[in-house]
Every structure is written in structure tokens, then in C-alpha cells.
Amino acid sequence: MQVLVVVLALVGVVAIFLELLMPGWDSYVGVFVGVIAFAVAAGIAVFALDWAVYFIGASVLLMVLAGYGFYLFLRKRQFHSTMILSDVDDAPRVDVSGFLGKEGKTVTLLRPSGDVDFNGVRMTASSDGPFIEKGIKVRVTEAQSNRIIVSAVEGN
In this structure, how many other beta carbons lie within 10 angstroms of the beta carbon of residue 26? Predict the structure, then answer.
């Protein structure tokens, strides 16, 4: 009986860790099997009262040690870097402050962003509000960081 309890508990722990390593593995079969095996093992231990205290203590200790070991394993393999999006922006920085007040012509539809030609220099720009059709004359109303905001010039 004690061997069955230990085997079921180990199957539960292994199944849960397999699910963490292989997300989507047969649609959460690992978590389901792990929880069921651990629950059955806990139920058997509770009904065998003479071993219940030892089993529950050993299970909690085993789970804490296994969790810490798993944390160290993932940290060492840098597993978290594949699960978390990085904040790296590799786009080249262009000083657009010189475009403030300049006029250009839209090369593409701005909805709300698109391309604008400023005397042969093609830049990506955003509309300050409504869509702007292709071929419309625009003026830069705001230029900061890597972003150019334009509005349509009156009398197009």
C-alpha cells in the first residue's frame, strides 16, 4: 500500500513537470494526470491514517524541493527568456526634429500611418486624426523620437 502511494505521488509530480516543460502536451493531460495521481495518493494516505502524517509531510517536502530544483533548472537553461517577450527595439533611431513644419505629399494612404515624401525623402508618418488619402499634401505638426505626426494642408 505504501509503495502504491509513493508511486502515484511520483507519477503526479512527474506529469505536472512534464506539462511545464512541454506546454500544450496533449491538451493539459500532464496537469490532469498529475492532479488525479496526487489526489489518489493523498486519499490513500488519509485512509491509511497511520501513514497519513508522514506521507503528507514527505509530499510537501518533496514538492518544495522539486519546485526549487525545477526553478534552478529553468534559470540555468534560461528557459524563461523563451516565454517572456523582450523589450528590445532594434529599429535605428532617426532624428526627425528637423521635419517639424515641413510639407510633403502622401505616398500611401495614412490610416493612421503610412509613407510621406518630403522632397525625395520617404518617411513613415502618422495622421493626427482622420485618414488621409494618397497624394494629399500634408504638414508635420509634431516630430519626436522616431515618430512624425502630420495633418492635411488646407486647400488640397
Answer: 11
The whole-angstrom separation of Cα 104 and Cα 27 is: 54
114 in Cβ contact with 125 (< 8 Å):
yes
Percent of the chain scoring above 70 in pLDDT:
56
Radius of gyration of the chain (CA): 31
The whole-angstrom distance between residue 98's C-alpha and the CA centroid of its chain comes to: 36
For each of the domains in the chain, give its residue range(s) and CATH number, in order of start: 2-83 (no CATH), 97-152 (2.40.50.140)
Q: Distances from the Cα of 107 to the Cαs of 23, 32, 119, 121, in angstroms?
A: 45, 56, 12, 11
**If you write DSSP's letter for every residue of 29-93 in order, what string do you get?**
HHHHHHHHHHHHHHHHHHHSHHHHHHHHHHHHHHHHHHHHHHHHHHHHHTTHHHHS------PPP
Cα–Cα distance list, 30 to 25, 45, 58, 110 (Å):
7, 22, 22, 49
Each residue's pLDDT tens digit, 80-132: 555 555 565 565 667 788 899 999 999 999 988 999 999 999 999 999 888 99
